[in-house]
Amino acid sequence: MRDEARNTEVPIDWDRRGLPGWCYHSPSLLELEKNELFKTHWQIACHISDIPEVGSFLSFDFCGERALILRDRDSEVRAFHNICRHRGSRLVAKEQGKCANALVCPFHGWVYNLDGTLRGAARPESFPDLDKNAFGLQPLEMEIWHGFVFIRMRPGPQPMVADLLAPIEGEIAAYNMADHVPTDGMWTEESPVNWKSIRDVDNEGYHVALAHPALQDLYGSTYVDEPYVDGVSKSDGRFTPTKGRRWAVRNYKKFSKPQPHLSEHLHKSWLYFGIFPNAVIATTPETVLFYQEFPLSVGKSVIRSATYRNPNEDRQQRAARYLAARIDRETVEEDIQLTIWSNESMASDSFEGFYLSDLEYGVRSHHDHLRRILPIYNVEDTPREDEIVKLNASLSAEAPK
Ligand code: FES
User: Quick one: which atom of ligand 1 is closest to the CA of 108?
Assistant: First the structure.
């Protein structure tokens, strides 16, 4: 369904080039991206059901930062830097777990209450002037949206999450996502490519017909991509009326049944909502999930994902969910290979850049969002590494506000 209010039509004359190849292999640019994209834009940390009880916590790292999400004694969700105020140790080392009624730093034993206040230092007599009020955990900016916990390391150009995602609120609300529960916990996988190569592949459905036989069997040419507008994109694949040639698709179509809480057009759709710069919330009739990618280095990234289900699913829905996950896993592995081929080509002298189809306008719209944050992406010829930061600053100063 096209949303005219979001101006999602592909323009007639658009620049079909993608980002220059050097942008995928530049350490200096990656540092700018960490600071101006990843740390200043909202990131999905988890779902509230990942921390179900008082003392439940979840931690994850990205771009040199460490985040800690936990439930305090009043069952409120809180977000902090996972950094002890004494000498910076991790407070929790595990990705997920539960603590009793306090966080005890594993280095020297400082103890923090679940609201982040410092309860006390070990050997307090050795800190005669310690002002406990000045040494609470550093909070992170946090917002919960339909059950998903978003955090932001620093203020940035995006509005609050509810405003950012208002254009997709209507459809998302139908899924009752806040009531969902985890299926298998957090899933992570390293990929040997620049993070943008992962996003480029994910931002278009032009490749589905050839590269993803299962998805083609599931929704085929019904798949429609809408580009990024104000930081949000949408893609929609509706089940084709065919039975399905592949075992998993055939049985998925058989078991997936209309969910009474969803409106009719969502009964047989997989939706993907892109959230700039690096995340997607996706829905099937049986599940909601998120995935995102973070850079580990210029040529290495980590993909992080989790899936959630309706808490009252029956056996048929469980079977459909299992089959959907199987189709999804197959797709992810196929995409990882495509990102590798695309990313490695950009280091070749013979790579002359993308030439994008109208069906890949989502890639261009994501790149245009990137260009607005860092105008250095507009520089076609490979700049010197030691000039990138300065050049970006001068291009930013010249850019129309
Ligand atoms: Fe945490 Fe010393 S670093 S108690």
Answer: 4
Is the minimum distance from the CB of 89 to ligand 1 under 6 angstroms?
Answer: yes
Nearest to 98 by CA among 122, 72, 119: 72
Q: What is the pLDDT of residues 53-69, one digit of tens each?
A: 999 999 999 999 999 99
* Residue 221: Cβ within 10 Å count: 11
pLDDT in tens, 360-386: 999 999 999 999 999 999 999 999 999
Distance (Å, whole) CA 312 – CA 180 = 9
Q: What is the distance between the alpha carbons of residues 291 and 198, in angstroms, rounded to a whole number?
A: 11
> Which option is the CATH number for 1-41+168-401: 3.20.20.70, 3.90.380.10, 1.10.1200.10, 3.30.300.30?
3.90.380.10
Instruction: Give the nearest ligand 1 atom to 109 CA.
Output: 4
Give one DSSP letter per residue of 214-242, joined into a string.
HHHHHTGGG-EEEEEETTEEEEEEE--SS
CATH superfamily of 42-155: Rieske [2Fe-2S] iron-sulphur domain (2.102.10.10)
8 Å CB contact between 252 and 218 = yes
Best probe residue, ligand 1, of 68, 80, 91, 110 (max atoms within 8 Å of C-beta): 110
What is the CA(155)–ligand 1 centre distance, in A? 28
